[in-house]
Specification:
single chain; five-stranded mixed sheet
């Protein structure tokens, strides 16, 4: 059996997949924010709990909201900033007492959806996470594309394309720049935009529900979000030209995006026709964590029965 861990900025989810790819056990805990030692301990405790559930010692794959630097071996570009400049893979190996495999969470999402999800059978897939942060992963012919610098698909830290005067210079980003796509399209970015316009602090699902119900301020905020998402994804299509773009993360649950955004991106894609599909992830919140579990092949040597 395989354990997959999705280490996010607000939650850590773990699952156990059987040989057929079915989820047998699942647990979720809150992420100890700004606490690196606490995060390591939470992951270790989650793995131990899942192994108690299934009665086996499992392989462990971990998806993170960043990537490992080829130069330093430490985490870089994580919006969960307390992970940055940490040797997370080595520390998890020590905490868990076994080898692990670690990958960017958006790459895990893309691998999962390419294998048996919304992108199954497609040649080129761009997987998007619209959550606490904004990330992207690329799968080509079933294989994840990491890139020479380990940052392939990291569209969230490009500037918002074709910005209007009211979008410049853009909100400050933790990366030190202003106006990154992440600052507009993450859940906190959507919430901030609504609060700036109305003075009301509401969670993104509430704003979206009010927009669908026709509340003018919420509807205007959602329209701004859709237009920004369309422009951001059009820039991806212009460079990568994927068969399908799969959305995941909390903001991907807004059903209206899938009808509206493709009609809006046509004005920005450098083509007379756009056949790229925009799809909701097939595996829901499990997309990333499933991909993390699949980082290990079947029959990995760390799969063994626990002593009774």
């Amino acid at each position: 059996m395989r354990i997959g861990i999705d280490l996010g900025g607000t939650k850590i989810e773990g699952i156990v997949l059987d040989a057929a790819g079915e989820v047998r056990w699942r647990r979720r805990v809150a992420t100890p924010r700004d606490d690196y030692a606490g995060t390591l301990a939470a992951v270790a405790a989650l793995v131990q709990a899942l192994e108690r559930d299934c009665g086996a010692r499992c392989s462990v794959g971990v998806g993170i909201p960043g990537t490992l630097s080829a130069a330093t071996g430490r985490v870089k570009n994580a919006n969960a900033t307390w992970l940055n400049d940490r040797a997370l893979d080595a520390d998890l190996v020590q905490a868990l007492g076994r080898p692990i495999r670690l990958a960017n969470d958006a790459n895990c999402l893309a691998v999962s959806e390419a294998s048996d999800g919304a992108g199954a059978g497609a040649h080129v897939i761009f997987g998007v996470i619209l959550g606490t942060g904004v990330g992207g992963g690329i799968v080509v012919h079933g294989r994840p594309l990491a890139g020479a610098n380990g940052i392939a698909g990291e569209w969230g830290h490009n500037p918002l394309p074709w910005p209007g005067p009211d979008e410049l210079p853009g909100p400050p980003c933790y990366c030190g720049k202003h106006g990154c796509i992440e600052t507009f399209l993450s859940g906190p970015g959507f919430q901030r935009d609504f609060e700036d316009a109305t003075g009301q602090a509401l969670a993104p699902p509430e704003i979206a529900a009010r927009a669908v119900a026709g509340e003018p301020a919420a509807a205007a905020a959602l329209c701004r979000y859709e237009h920004r998402l369309a422009r951001a994804l059009a820039s991806v299509i212009n460079v990568l030209d994927p068969d399908v773009i799969v959305l995941a993360g909390g903001m991907s649950n807004i059903e209206r995006l899938y009808a509206t955004v493709p009609t809006l991106w046509r004005a920005f894609v450098f083509s007379d026709a756009v056949v790229t599909r925009l799809a909701r992830n097939h595996h829901g919140d499990s997309s990333g964590v499933r991909g993390a579990a699949w980082l290990w092949p079947a029959g990995a040597p760390s799969e063994m029965q626990l002593p009774s």
